[in-house]
Task: inverse folding
DNA sequence: CGGGTTTTCCCATAGTTATCCACAATCCCC
DNA sequence: GGGGATTGTGGATAACTATGGGAAAACCCG
């Protein structure tokens, strides 16, 4: 289980350190892809495998299913850790998530999220404002 | 599994480099053909075999099935890699997919797609709007 | 046949990427 | 608190790859 929030720097070679606690759980094999709200998702290989399989089984003949599978699959990249526990962020993902220098890495149970610090703060303050309303809605979901 | 997005240039001899990660999986034998949404599909020989079989079994009586099978079967060509991992794009396929200079090569699980960069960007923004609520879709897939 | 054109194969080079190493700061345990 | 191990960050070096030409072979077409 991934929990907690960490900040790191991306260097000019697009390398990003992953928190040691997460490294063990990822076991050298992970997949990074486009996430929601302009962040990136990092999945353990196994989690990704089942997601990708489901995506691949969507019907090729339906335009919207095709498009959806394309977005998720083409956005994904296997990541390798160097022997210091860093991963490489491909350009197109770096752009997608507006990653500059200061990065927030956060654990969200079964996945890891990668945010630019500024985006992260923005998102947080937005959520904090709305948190009252959200709580109301969550109640409907039985939380 | 083919995943990820890469950009390459076609040179004036219509040669196109295939990402090293994909080369290994293709193992020197591949088939290129017309794809859906004005891109090209590139299949490993084995995948192509089973797909071609399915296409041949589509009911001859239905006009659209007939058209679809024709599109893919008549467009197909075996591709050879030169010793630097490049393939040759035949003229009629190059025209079909509007390939100019900057090309996007993307992995979509069991096939590779080849897009002109401009077409790809257009398609992406269109899909992002349409698919909009990715989260909802993910829920349907049980993720 | 022969001239010109296209295709195929091979190599050069510049740029990029991966791997390895250094150092300083931090953490942790005794 | 002290000392050893761990970790974050930045470079350096070596390996690889993208791209562009050049030469040889094949292919036309008259």
Result:
């Amino acid at each position: 289980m991934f929990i907690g929030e960490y900040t790191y720097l991306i260097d000019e070679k697009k390398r990003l350190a992953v928190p040691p606690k997460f490294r063990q759980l990822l076991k050298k094999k992970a997949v990074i892809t486009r996430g929601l709200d302009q962040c990136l998702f990092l999945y353990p290989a196994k989690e990704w495998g089942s997601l990708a399989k489901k995506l691949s089984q969507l019907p090729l003949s339906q335009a919207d299913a095709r498009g959806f599978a394309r977005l998720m699959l083409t956005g994904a990249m296997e990541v390798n850790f160097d022997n210091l526990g860093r991963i490489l962020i491909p350009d197109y993902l770096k752009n997608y998530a507006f990653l500059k220098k200061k990065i927030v890495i956060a654990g969200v149970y079964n996945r890891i999220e990668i945010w630019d610090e500024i985006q992260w703060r923005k998102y947080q303050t937005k959520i904090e404002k709305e948190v009252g309303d959200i709580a109301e809605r969550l109640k409907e979901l039985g939380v």
User: Anything to note?
Assistant: Chain A has one domain: 2-117. The first strand of chain A starts at residue 2 and ends at 9. Chain A has a mean pLDDT of 92. The radius of gyration of chain A is 16 Å.
